[in-house]
Write a structure and sequence with these properties.
5-stranded parallel beta sheet; 7 helices; Rossmann fold; alpha/beta; 42% helix
Length: 191
């Protein structure tokens, strides 16, 4: 059940568009916001910590949580790799008197927005072009040519949903995109 005090902010984008960088900026700017830690079945990257970046859980445990309706949203984002937002995580943040910021994929963002239609600000981040998006993915140094192709195909599909979100920001230059997101959140929260 939605209450006026339980606001949500969703930052979504195709992989490589800059949503995590923008989310980090917003969290550093506003102490009233708290990062909603997603659950995933993928393995941690070298710099990631369980309970900080993600809740890393087994596929079996994730599927059990699906059966128990423990997720506000979940998706098999890539073959065999589940991601989701736990209801308990949103409640934890609201109990702290803060506003959850969800850095999640496009389909998951649509699902959460449908569950909390009146108290959600959703921001879609887009790279200036698919060519630029590909360059960003390649520059990470963590992607194989196959994974870049998969992510690019998914990005084309995800961009077709951008009109489902409250605000669209084209991330041509990160500082400007951060300021646009900051301004949107300030208006949404009356700060």
């Amino acid at each position: 059940m939605e209450s006026s005090a339980k606001k949500l902010i969703i930052i979504t984008a195709p992989s490589g568009a800059g949503k995590t960088s923008i989310t980090r900026y917003l969290l550093s700017k506003y102490p009233q916001l708290a990062f909603s830690i997603s659950a995933t079945t993928r393995s941690p990257r070298s710099n990631e910590q369980n309970g900080k970046d993600y809740y890393f859980i087994s596929t079996h445990d994730f599927q059990e949580k699906i059966k128990a309706n423990a997720f506000a949203e979940w998706e098999m984002v890539y073959e065999g790799k589940y991601y989701g937002t736990l209801h308990a995580e949103l409640e934890r943040i609201w109990q702290e008197g803060k506003v959850p910021v969800l850095d999640i994929d496009v389909k998951g963002a649509i699902h959460v927005q449908q569950q909390y239609p009146n108290n959600t600000l959703s921001i879609f981040i887009e790279a200036p072009s698919l060519e630029e998006l590909k360059k960003r993915l390649e520059s990470r140094g963590t992607e194989t040519p196959e994974s870049i192709t998969t992510r690019m195909n998914k990005a084309s599909y995800e961009i077709s949903f951008k009109h489902h979100f409250n605000i669209e920001i084209v991330n041509r230059e990160l500082d400007q995109a951060c300021k646009e997101a900051e301004s949107a959140i300030g208006r949404f929260m009356d700060w």
